[in-house]
Design goal:
With 275 residues, the chain is of the alpha/beta class. Helix content is 45%, strand content 15%. It has a six-stranded parallel sheet, sandwiched between helices. The protein has a four-stranded parallel sheet with strand order 6-5-7-8, sandwiched between helices. It starts with 7 loop residues before the first strand and ends in a 7-residue tail after the last strand.
């Protein structure tokens, strides 16, 4: 098969990275996607970043060798923090991470130079967003908050309601008091919660979705590399997870609606044979 007609590989710790898939569906509807969610090891956030890097390397190797993908998107902020620089050197296909393009966008949009980052513990502690933002503009005042409960809520298919709203207030009220004007959703699970987050944070704040920035970056780079799909065949997408039992029925219902897919079916493939 011609390289340009191969699929784009995506990986995440669970179903959060499907928010990146949704943006790719919008911008490049003709492209094929093979998605791998490592639900067996979910969540990545609290784990040692060296261990996360091993998981990411294993998944990328599988996507390239077994699925013959033409590019890989690390659709997970924690995984990007842990492994991006390493795997970009190790593998020959184009590999994209979540952080840099979003940091650039945040600095560009912020009017009062008060930017907040919410993400998993791993992403926040890695200082990946913080370092890049301060390299761009050292005068920015940063606020970072780990929000691990958001990941659990999304994996359970809970995108709104009293529990979600209370959790959001617990995490984010201090950001309102700080008068931040830009909030980076530094975990691909978090865009599922956009309506609640917008309600709590108010109209004046800009929510910055890394999934959208990533899709734009992928399209531009694949175009420059002449790797955008050339045939007119209908797209065919596959969704794979390492442990199917970890996917809630509620997510299958509400996730499909959020992603605007007629159906959302996962197949199970545990590639971690050494465990």
């Amino acid at each position: 098969m011609e390289a340009s007609n191969r699929a784009i590989g995506l990986l995440d710790s669970g179903v959060g990275g499907l928010t990146v898939a949704r943006e790719i569906f919008k911008l490049m509807p003709e492209e094929n996607i093979i998605y791998y969610g490592d639900t067996l090891h979910l969540p990545y956030g609290p784990k040692d970043l060296n261990l996360v890097r091993e998981y990411v390397e294993e998944i990328i190797s599988y996507l390239i060798k077994e699925k013959k993908v033409k590019a890989v998107v690390i659709a997970c902020n924690t995984a990007t923090s842990a492994a991006f620089d390493y795997v970009k050197q190790k593998f020959e296909v184009p590999i994209f991470g979540m952080i840099k393009s979003t940091a650039v966008r945040a600095v560009k949009l912020s009017r009062n130079k008060k930017i907040a980052i919410i993400g998993t513990e791993g992403t926040v502690k890695s200082n990946a967003y913080q370092n890049i933002i301060l390299e761009i503009d050292s005068e920015v005042k940063l606020f970072a908050k780990a929000c691990p409960k958001f990941v659990n809520l999304v994996e359970e298919g809970k995108f709104d309601g009293v529990e979600v709203e209370k959790t959001a207030h617990d995490y984010l009220d201090f950001l309102i008091e700080a008068e931040v004007d830009s909030l980076i959703l530094g975990c691909t699970h978090f865009p599922y919660l956009t309506p609640i987050l917008s309600k709590i944070m108010g109209d004046k704040l800009r929510l910055i979705n890394p999934a959208h920035e990533m899709a734009l970056e992928v399209r531009e780079n694949l175009s420059n590399l002449a790797l955008l799909k050339k045939n007119n065949l209908k797209s065919s997408n596959k969704f794979i997870v390492s442990d199917k039992e970890k996917i809630s029925k509620r997510f299958l219902k509400y996730g499909r609606q959020f992603l605007k897919l007629n159906e959302l079916k996962f197949e199970e493939k545990n590639i971690f044979i050494n465990e």
